[in-house]
């Protein structure tokens, strides 16, 4: 612990978050402080910063995640303070084809990175978030275009299908197929299906991605676990068994959208099953935790934000499948109280920590901790009338085309060909220069 970090604790506790989980006003006051904490990391407002990005070391994908957290903040409390900032941030990062592949990211972007921005866009549509200006892409267009480019990467050459983790061959992880990329496609597809009601365009894809996840055993319907993924070599039999909360979160809520839309028992069973499987992310005190890394203090930057998505997607699940609500409320009530007592750190006296079961602030801080705390606390609002998830015909005003974006866009092929071309060109030049030098040498000697 750094010495400055305990000074506020010694000086005062008046700024600490005093949360009464049965009072919407109290929830709002707590969330407002934490939302400001999230936006403290927003880089777009700083001189020399980039619109839509959060400060170092937070990667681009987490910005998409954090903007999603803030869209829900605006919805839950009808608070417009950050609305224009959020709209500007998202529109700046859409890229040429409105599918969240901005040029700055295209050398490192993975399917999982892209989908978290697409999810922010469909969420904006479902929340009837203020629409972008008419000369920009709509929320629905952005979400649909993201889905379209992702589904084009479906790869039957190994593991019987699925998306690879990475989009580009030169990135570590191109040889890996994982749950987050495929569950991301499944989740986004399920939401687009429910929002648009376009069965012919989305239904097959949603079933195909879920069934594939089951076939390769990334999902287990006996234990209701969602594992990390597997190497392409060996056709996805070389598995990595880590359990990350955002994987289960994408699957449980995607299933909940499907149940809400189709009314089918299989989706009901899956939703209820994965809600029970979420218990691996609650510690011995009933408080949400990232079980794969927190005990060993090895959670990396990205992983420290995963509980934000678990919270957001469990809250959606509780609304979409009313039978899951009691269990999810229990998860939230215990966790929210623990979060509030943890948010007593930092200069401001209300920075949130990582281990919420620790008494007080555990000295960890960052965008991930702050987002996670915000999502836990604002999710309590589902019990105070904030429980509508709109579609296109019952109040969602975002309109768009399911064929939006560039449906034939395959950046990997294009960039790789250029790359190979350049490399080949370079070797030919090297060979020609080499031969010239040898020949010149021969003539000089002779
Ligand atoms: C919490 O809020 C509820 C509803 O506003 C109120 O009835 C109750 O007295 C509050 N509890 C405390 C301890 O302030
Ligand atoms: C709206 O949210 C901002 C940011 O958290 C907060 O400062 C402000 O007080 C909120 N507005 C109201 C009316 O509570
Ligand atoms: C891309 O990076 C440049 C240089 O840092 C920056 O000026 C620009 O705003 C960035 N564009 C996006 C979409 O992030
Ligand atoms: C939207 O939801 C309503 C129920 O709230 C339903 O009647 C309607 O069919 C849905 N629209 C679409 C496009 O699925
Ligand atoms: C679904 O989208 C496709 C492609 O745009 C379109 O041809 C079809 O009419 C749509 N179906 C519905 C029910 O909107
Ligand atoms: C499985 O993958 C790991 C890398 O994650 C590798 O070290 C190991 O050799 C692989 N095992 C087999 C049997 O291919
Ligand atoms: C759903 O679960 C119930 C209870 O376990 C079982 O009887 C039923 O067959 C399941 N339905 C489907 C479609 O899996
Ligand atoms: C969090 O803190 C509590 C209380 O100190 C401790 O019992 C628990 O093991 C910690 N949890 C983790 C995951 O480290
Ligand atoms: C579907 O979701 C809505 C929330 O938008 C909820 O009110 C409704 O009860 C759900 N329908 C079913 C069948 O669970
Ligand atoms: C959605 O937003 C539109 C445009 O701002 C507005 O006219 C409409 O009343 C809103 N609908 C709901 C259900 O809030
Ligand atoms: C779609 O992207 C491909 C590259 O993958 C490009 O060749 C094509 O021109 C693009 N189409 C449009 C309409 O921009």
Automatic annotation (TrEMBL):
For this UniProt entry, what is the primary localization, expressed as one broad class?
membrane
Keywords, alphabetical: Cell wall biogenesis/degradation, Glycoprotein, Glycosidase, Hydrolase, Membrane, Signal, Transmembrane, Transmembrane helix
Residue ranges crossing the lipid bilayer per the database entry: 424-445
Broadest EC class assigned to this enzyme: hydrolase
Signal sequence extent: 1-16
Per UniProt, what is one GO molecular function of this protein? mannan endo-1,6-alpha-mannosidase activity
Reaction(s) catalysed by this chain, per the record, are: Random hydrolysis of (1->6)-alpha-D-mannosidic linkages in unbranched (1->6)-mannans
Q: Would you name any one GO CC term?
A: endomembrane system
Known EC number(s)?
A: 3.2.1.101
- Family annotation (InterPro entries): 6-hairpin_glycosidase_sf, Glyco_hydro_76, Mannan-1_6-alpha_mannosidase
Its GO biological process annotations read: budding cell bud growth; carbohydrate catabolic process; cell wall organization; fungal-type cell wall biogenesis
List where in the cell it is found. Answer: Endomembrane system
Which family does the record assign?
A: Belongs to the glycosyl hydrolase 76 family.
What's the protein called, per UniProt? Mannan endo-1,6-alpha-mannosidase
Protein species of origin: Pichia kluyveri (Yeast)
């Amino acid at each position: 612990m750094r010495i400055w970090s305990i000074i506020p604790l010694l000086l005062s506790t008046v700024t600490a978050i005093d949360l009464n989980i049965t009072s919407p006003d109290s929830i709002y006051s707590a969330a407002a402080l934490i939302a400001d904490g999230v936006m403290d990391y927003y880089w777009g407002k700083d001189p020399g910063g980039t619109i839509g990005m959060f400060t170092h070391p937070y990667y681009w994908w987490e910005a998409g995640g954090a903007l999603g957290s803030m869209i829900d903040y605006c919805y839950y409390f009808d608070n417009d303070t950050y609305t224009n900032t959020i709209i500007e941030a998202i529109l700046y990062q859409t890229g040429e084809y409105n599918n969240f592949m901005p040029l700055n990211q295209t050398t490192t972007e993975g399917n999982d990175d892209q989908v978290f921005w697409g999810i922010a866009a469909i969420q904006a549509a479902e929340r009837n978030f203020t629409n972008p200006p008419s000369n920009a892409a709509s929320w629905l267009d952005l979400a649909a275009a993201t889905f379209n480019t992702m589904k084009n990467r479906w790869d039957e050459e190994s593991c019987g299908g699925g998306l690879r983790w990475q989009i580009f061959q030169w990135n570590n992880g191109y040889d890996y197929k994982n749950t987050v990329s495929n569950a991301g496609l499944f989740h986004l597809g399920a939401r687009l299906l429910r929002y648009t009601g376009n069965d012919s365009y989305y239904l097959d894809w949603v079933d195909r991605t879920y069934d594939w996840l089951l076939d390769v055993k990334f999902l287990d319907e006996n234990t209701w676990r969602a594992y990390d993924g597997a190497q392409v070599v060996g056709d996805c039999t070389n598995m990595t068994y880590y359990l990350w909360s955002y994987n289960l979160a994408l699957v449980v809520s995607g299933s909940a959208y499907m149940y809400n839309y189709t009314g089918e028992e299989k989706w009901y069973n899956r939703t209820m099953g994965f809600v029970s499987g979420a218990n691996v992310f609650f510690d011995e005190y009933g408080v949400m935790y990232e079980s794969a890394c927190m005990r060993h203090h090895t959670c990396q930057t990205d992983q420290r934000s995963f509980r934000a998505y678990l919270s957001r997607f469990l809250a959606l699940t509780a609304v979409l499948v009313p039978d899951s609500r009691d269990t999810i409320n229990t998860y939230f009530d215990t966790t929210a109280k623990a979060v509030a007592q943890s948010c007593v750190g930092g200069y401001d006296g209300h920075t949130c920590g990582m281990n919420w079961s620790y008494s007080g602030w555990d000295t960890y801080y960052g965008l991930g901790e702050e987002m996670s705390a915000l999502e836990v606390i604002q999710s309590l609002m589902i019990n105070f009338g904030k429980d509508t998830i709109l579609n296109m015909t019952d109040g969602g005003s975002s309109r768009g085309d399911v064929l939006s974006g560039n449906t034939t866009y395959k950046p990997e092929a294009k960039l790789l060909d250029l790359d190979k071309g350049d490399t080949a060109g370079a070797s030919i030049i090297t060979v020609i220069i080499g031969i010239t030098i040898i020949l010149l040498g021969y003539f000089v000697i002779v």
